[in-house]
Write a structure and sequence with these properties.
five-stranded mixed sheet; RUN2_DENND5A; elongated
Amino acid sequence: MSGGGGGSSAPGRFADYFVICGLDTETGLEPDELSGENFEQTPLRRTFKSKVLARYPENVEWNPFDQDAVGMLCMPKGLAFKTQADSREPQFHSFIITREDGSRTFGFSLTFFEEVTSKQICSAMQTLYHMHNAEYDILHTPPTNDKDSCSSTGDCNGTSVSKLQRFNSYDISRDTLYVSKCICLITPMSFMKACKKVLEQLHQAVTSPQPPPLPLESYIYNILYEVPLPPAGRSLKFSGVYGPIICQRPSTNELPLFDFPVKEVFELLGVENVVQLFTCALLEFQILLYSQHYQRLMTVAETITALMFPFQWQHVYVPILPASLLHFLDAPVPYLMGLHSNGLDDRSKLELPQEANLCFVDIDNHFIELPEDLPQFPNKLEFVQEISEILMAFGIPPEGNLHCSESASKMKSLRACDLVSDKRNGNIAGSPLNSYELLKENETIARLQALVKRTGVSLEKVREETSSKKDLKIQCDEEEFKVYQLNIQIREIFANRFTQMFADYEVFVIQPNQDKESWFTNREQMQNFDKASFLSDQPEPYLPFLSRFLETQMFASFIDNKIMCHDEDDKDPVLRVFDSRVDKIRLLNVRTPTLRTSMYQKCTTIDEAEKSIELRLAKIDHTAVHPHLLDMKIGQGKYELGFFPKLQSDVLSTGPASNKIVLKQRYLLLAFLFSVPIQKYIQEARNLGSTIRQPKLSNLSPSVIAQTNWKFVEGLLKECRNKTKRMLVEKMGREAVELGHGEVNITGVEENTLIASLCDLLERIWSHGLQVKQVRSRYSCMLQKNSVLLDLGILLDSERRKSDTSPAMSPLRISLVQDMRHIQNISEIKTDVGKARAWVRLSMEKKLLSRHLKQLLSDHELTKKLYKRYAFLRCDDEKEQFLYHLLSFNAVDYFCFTNVFTTILIPYHILIVPSKKLGGSMFTANPWICISGELGETGVLQIPRNILEMTFECQNLGKLTTVQIGHDNSGLYAKWLVEYVMVRNEITGHTYKFPCGRWLGKGMDDGSLERILVGELLTSNTEVDERQCRTPPLQQSPSMIRRFVTISPNNKPKLNTGQIQEAIGEAVNGIVKHFHKPEKERGSLTLLLCGESGLVSALEQVFQHGFKSPRLFKNVFIWDFLEKAQTYYETLEQNEMVPEENWQTRARNFCRFITAINNTPRNIGKDGKFQMLVCLGARDHLLHHWIALLADCPITAQMYEDIALIKDHTLVNSLIRVLQTLQEFNITLEASLVKGIDI
């Protein structure tokens, strides 16, 4: 966490080192090749190597000095030279050194300019200018005649003068040369304000005409050895050269130490941008900060990570990226880095990888470029409003202060077309000719300002209130106190969001049932948080953000920390503070703990937090020893005005002996306390899953860079393995649990979230080591370049099921380019990245992702051209394993394309197969068809006569469920025997078969002119070697003529009563299971009602059992029996011979439904009517009543034999009990089943 040091730092000492960096006159000017500066620049603009000139003390055992890292971060751009004509204001910046174990050391640096006294350096600079001017003249000399003719004109004279001014800007006889120098404090904790004052006062001492009261060594010795760290919850005063310096440290039950001005971040970026950047950081996108000022980079980075409390950034964190480490921008991992701008290049000149997943923040220009598909932070509008109210109370406009950066003027000159074309700009929209006006017109900001106005908050009122509260005398100045106030108020608001959102998180933590050692050993296989249950309790608007946040490394580490720390004493300090806040919220909240609401709850802890700081600053707890004269030799301690002196190392190399012993003892005690295994587990758990550690600054040899890149490759492969396994476990659900791959309560995390994270991974793999940086999408780049090579048109020979020897559709070919063209034709997808992700989803749905990528990568020449040698896609073994992991997705069925792009137009191909034996070719009527799916239906499509195959386009229907097919009964031969219908989605290749096997025509079969067919999704093997495991097939509509009793009863197998009972039980059980599944995992209810083993089919068996044989050549249907029963009950009611009221209601309902179905305008035939009755009875929970009614009906005695199931009271009672179980479910029928009936 920001402000905290590493666990290895010694307690008690405010600063570990005082360092001086600058020009080493003995080695002279050495160009800094790693900084990447162009040698076409003038020598004064070039960078030269800086060196650590001195450090005091030489080394401390608890924090070994890292010379390379300190030298690089004190002066990230190396040495800078200026003349008396340039501005030479001192510049302060802070930095962080993160060790490989994750612990941190803080640095604070003041860079100023000193006159160069070395004649050799001045001469070397003069020589460099001579060489530069000579090269420039050779390259830019105009033709001779032009030169002669121009030499007399004023214009040309002016130009030559400006050339001289530009290129002869250093003349040893005329100019004074200055070089940058830096003084720096290395500290275990981040007391930024105090360290800045110490360094500024030291610099003031050497630039003031009057010498300081004591030699500089006295002050430096004091800060290194005699000023302690303030204990937790206490304040400390110590002496600088010219005045007292105060710092205060929060107690263990407050938010952790943070000493950077939040005000500056909101002034630079504005509330809207800060919240968007904060969201990107929480979701672990790659974040690149960009500014001319090192301190701004540091302030923004530290503020964003501090506002994450209680979560901690787990990935690469380099707020100031030295020029020599620019190759780290290529890292295919989440990172938060700061890149220094020279103030000249604009955004378009930056070549950045991974732009689709990158959040780019141009701090100086008040501009943020967001990654694609960024979900909104929960309650964002209310959150922004609450922050804005606080900012306005402190006089800070919510849209930020554009004038606070030198680049404000640049904003006005930004090209309008550039901003309009970039729709991902989080802050500027519309016409950007006047950026400030635009910000004022921002809808969100306008609403916020109106709200604040309505509440009556004004700056004057707040000032009056704050002044009236000031009973205590604050020891620091008023401006500094305001910084403390604003910091804590903003931080409390952010912390409150997490305490509200995760108030019940402990309920969902899955505690391991083994000891910690075993748990940690198997950590990767363990689930630590019940995500599905947690998400099911959250308000719907929170889900897009939370479902992705729960997948981050920072959340996993937070929960790991919770599991490892059972005891209060073991707890990480951050976790202890958060848990105590959560406990308070639970006590205050009267609502049900597990029931979340989206009602926004404002922060109530601000006053208490503010009071704690105020008390510490009013009453100073500790005052350090004052600086004093040291035991220095005569003549030591002198200094020259304007030059930081060479300090006396003999007095600064060691501290007082007694103090050293005490420090050593305390350090050993702390080391012992922190050596318990739990600390090891916590640290390892934090690092788990993040194979890419912090970049090491001390060794930048080619072998180390190569090793780092190899770690990236290994990390990507490991992440791919873990993601594919996770996705398969989630998809397989309970089946995976039974195989031992997870726990029952873990499955059900949003499938879209997992697929989006897979797309992120693929984007990073495609970007790793890429030569071309300008292309928005790496997939698109590869696909377009391969388009000629890849249009192979491989036929999908196995598209047909092997058992089908009947006519089938022409096979759909497998073509990567064809799939890409489908995606490019989708107008709803606007960006290259969106198209690439849609292509990944389509390939997954078609089970071709691994195959397509393998095909893409088979062009080795193109791969060599596009990628550097170390790129992941050029590591053959890892690439093969990567493709193998993706191949495992073929084991399950994904509908991740169909279910996401619900509004796109899709071409469907229909094939109708009539019976060849019974004169299908003589058919004279006009057929029609209507196809229904989970997302909609086509409406009636007229089929041209004698055309059995056609393609049409309509909005995505989703998974297909039913086909309604019929004709208009026109012509001489209006009889049609249809075997089956096939429908294929021409984009995804999904083919559905709808068996029929029934006549459509008056006087044929049951007299139906239309039928509802239930479909089965066919599966296919795309390659023999890519063996696919197929999930159980969906049910289909019955494919045999069995719904009427014919003169040949042997045509169909007769079931006994036991088999019929079993069929009823299985059909009802299927419906019960359907409703007990999570809603997103449920299949189609239509299949369970009307499919081959569905409820309608099972009840048909009930009514057909024992049905009396009809007369010769006459078909009798179940519907005939039901109509006779209806007539009987209606006659009974007319004669007023009704046994009881309950019975009467059931009879009336039964008659009403039979009448309504008979009156429907649809020609669905007698079996179709029976199907509709069963579906309506199931919907309205009436089936068991009707079975009881029919069992007692005299018509049953006439039409059924004595052995019939319907006449056996024991079996009927059993049937009624089974059907009663459907009463608790809300059955919604598909429109195609009840079309034309309103009941």
